[in-house]
Structures are given as C-alpha cells and as structure tokens.
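agent: user wants the full assembly modeled, not chains individually. Plan: 1) parse entity lines 2) check alphabet per entity 3) run joint structure prediction 4) return tokens. Steps 1-2 passed, two entities, 297 residues total. Proceeding.
--- entities ---
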Amino acid sequence: MWDWLKQNGLSPKSFYRTSGLCLPWLTVLFLGCAGFGLIDGLYIAPADYQQGDGFRIMYVHVPSAFAAMAVYFAMAICAVLTLVWRVKLAAVCMSCSAPIGASFTFLALVTGSIWGKPMWGTWWIWDARLTSVLILFFLYMGFIALQSILAEQHYRDRACALIALVGVINLPIIHYSVIWWNTLHQGPSISQLAKPAIAPSMLYPLLAMIAAFFLFYLSVLFMRMRNQILLREKHTHWVREVVLS
Amino acid sequence: MNWIYMGGYGAYVWGAYGLTLVVFVMNYLIVKREKKQIQKRMNRFIQSKDHE
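--- prediction returned ---
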C-alpha cells in the first residue's frame, strides 16, 4: 500500500497533474471564503462591546497566526516523511511551505502589533505569546537561510527537515503561553473542547477567514511546488513534455 | 463614511487589512515571477540537451 502510494499518489509526476486540476477550484473557493469573510467581518458583524470596531483586526490576525502555526506543523510532518521514508514530494512541500509560513507569521506579528496599540496602549511587549511567535518567525527565517546556503539537494532536504523538527517544540509553547504565563494577550476564543467564547455572528466570518487563509496557503503552495518539481525532475521525459507543450 | 471611520479605529483596522492584502499579493506575484523564470531556464536546459 505504502509503496503503491509512493509510486503513484506521491510521485512528483502525478502530483503535478493532480495539482494542476485542483488549482482553479482552490482559487475559486479561496475567493468565495475571503469574500464572505471580508464582507461579514468588516460590515455585517456587530461591533464588540469593549473594543468597538477595533476588534475587526481579529479577522486577519487570528487566521494568520493560526495558519502560521499550522504551516509549521505541516512542515514538521513533511520533515518526518523526508527523513524516515524519503518521500520526494514531502521534501518539496516542506521547502515550499516555509516562505508562505514566514509571511503569515510576519502578518500575525504586525497585525497583532497594530491591534495592541489601541487596545493595550503599546505596539509590543516582551511577553510569552509575542516572544514565542517572534521565535517562530526566526525559525522560518533560519529554515529559509539554511536552504539557500546548502547546494546539494539531498543533503539540503535532510538538514532542513532536521531544523523543522527541532523547531516544532515551539508550537505547544505558543499555544499554551497565554495559559502558563501572565500576559496582556487574551486567551483562545475557539478551542476543540469548550464552547467558543465568541458570539456566532462574530464567529462565522472568523471561520470563513481561517478557511480563506488555508485555501490561499494551498494554492500558493501548489504553485510553488509545481515550479520546484519541474526543476528537480528536469532530467525526466515527462518534464520535457510539460515544458515543450 | 461612518463605516470607513470604524468608530475611531479606522487607521488601525484598514492598516491591518491593507497589510494583509499586500502580503497576499506579494506571495502570488513572487510565485508567478518564479514560474516565468523557471520556464525560461527549462527551455534553455532542453535546448542545450538537444544540441548535445
């Protein structure tokens, strides 16, 4: 079963074909979710009773922070697949995820800062949540830097996978930082176990925006991976056909 | 007009959304540019192979 998957489903060639079919749908779904989330979040959802209209920054801040962590987690899974089973596609997915994850982390930090100024009275504070997310940003940067200095493909994939795995320890620290330490940052609004601590009229646009961020990640990831696959597989016959067609 | 004002938080809210738009567009443009470059590179690679 595993060998079959590696041969067929997870081969660069079949991914190139399938992702090409998925991309238009991902784009349409992304535009739909983003459109709904933006209209609902910026216009329809009622103002917060404490934060007024300032809370609307949540609809870009929470999804970007959530996606930043999820992308890193995806990279860690790919790292295991690369190190243990040597799945070629996983290495491509890992390296192509990093710049997108870094941009989401940057977005989470800056939108959080923009939100913090009017609500907390400061752009930045060195507390556990903010600092651990900053570390996540540095982890992404370290990954990207490592990738650009190592020339040999096989060696580079394995070194980067190792770095991605080591950094995964930061994810639970980010998640629990608001519970373990005193902080200005508010606790989670949505959790898997408890009822959401947020009204449905404010929750729906948030869910739509989270979906939009993930769909955007997948679309850009697929486009990046397709580029990388062409380069990596340039000696094969099928890439020749794709390029010439 | 009242809507754009965002109850006094207009600059913060639109600033955050504007930045998000910039990051998304940049992500998209970078990958599009990369695609063009790779297409060129691959064409050159295949031509050099054919000459051999």
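agent: reporting back. The interface with chain A takes residues 3, 6-9, 12-13, 15-17, 19-20, 23-24, 26-28, 30-32, 34-35, 38-39, 41-43, 45-46 of chain B (CB under 8 Å). Residues 10-51 of chain B form the longest helix (42 residues).
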